[in-house]
Amino acid sequence: MRFRKLLLIITALFFFIELKAQSNSEEISSYEYVFDGTKKDSLKAHVFFPNEKESNDSRPAIVIFHGGGWNMGEPSWAFARAKKFAQNGMVAVAAQYRLSDQESITPIEAMEDARKVIIWMRKNSEKLKIDPDRIVAYGWSAGAHLAASAAVFPSFDPEKNISSKPNALVLYSPALSLINSGWFKKLLLNKGKPYNYSPAEHVKENMPPAIILVGKDDTVTPIRESELFHQNMVKYGNESYLHIYEGVSHLFTPSSQPDNGWPNPDKEIQAKAYKEIDLFLEKLGYFN
């Protein structure tokens, strides 16, 4: 059953917690902030600061949205990646968002939360010591959909007219075209059509630069989704870099293995993908 496969995929994303091997011996702690206290359960931003103390410089920032099929996951899945970026001089945020419950909460609410946390970062840029004009949105799988949506379907703070549009996008094994996704349609609970919330079909001019990393044989977020997003980015004159990796599928699991279960990433290819992300951020001047 497709639903059962998706549950296996979602559970498998705990794999990202194991990325702690990338951390150096100097521990970086997170600080917990509430970025939206209006919901039944307050939504939290877990912020990781670079180790340099008492710096008055405003730094580039990155907000990370975990995967999990829109209905499972937690910010801690992104902690290892957040620490890695903080170690390289960025203020990194592992963001919470509402999870679909197949009763009242849908991916639409998660998209709203992704936009809100970016607006919150800009409104609190002085306190967080971040440059509000250098905020990267990073996501994998369903989280990449939320990152891209913050740019493609932006919202604005009603008082200060601050935009949710990030200044750059990092999209890893991304869900970008959802018009044919039965799972996404089911999660919407008839609140709208998948097309209206599908980033690839709504790319326009003045999008932030993006890097897209995907396995050629991905069966969960097929390569055609990334190709369509990239093609439309280029069509409208936006900066976009698409990296396709041979011999691997979703989350860089070898193509010889099922990619709808526990991920088993090819370490060499995964390292190449992470290096491309670093180079992309270095090119933008965001990364030490």
Q: Look at the helices and sheets and give the structural class.
A: alpha/beta
Order of helices and strands: HEEEHEHHEHEHEHEH
Low-confidence segments: 1-25
Rg calculated over all Cα atoms: 17 Å
Question: CATH-wise, what's the superfamily?
Answer: Alpha/Beta hydrolase fold, catalytic domain
CATH topology annotation = Rossmann fold
User: Which word captures the global form?
Assistant: globular
Please count the beta strands (DSSP E, at least 2 residues each). Answer: 8
The whole-number mean of residue pLDDT values reads 90
Regarding CATH, which class? Alpha Beta
First and last CA, distance: 45 Å
DSSP helical segment count: 8
Q: Please state roughly what percent of the residues sit in beta strands, choosing from under 5%, 5-15%, 15-25%, 25-35%, 35-45% or over 45%.
A: 15-25%
Largest sheet: 8 strands, mixed
Strand order of the largest sheet: 1-2-4-3-5-6-7-8
Q: Count up the domains.
A: 1
The share of residues in helices is 25-40%
CATH architecture: 3-Layer(aba) Sandwich
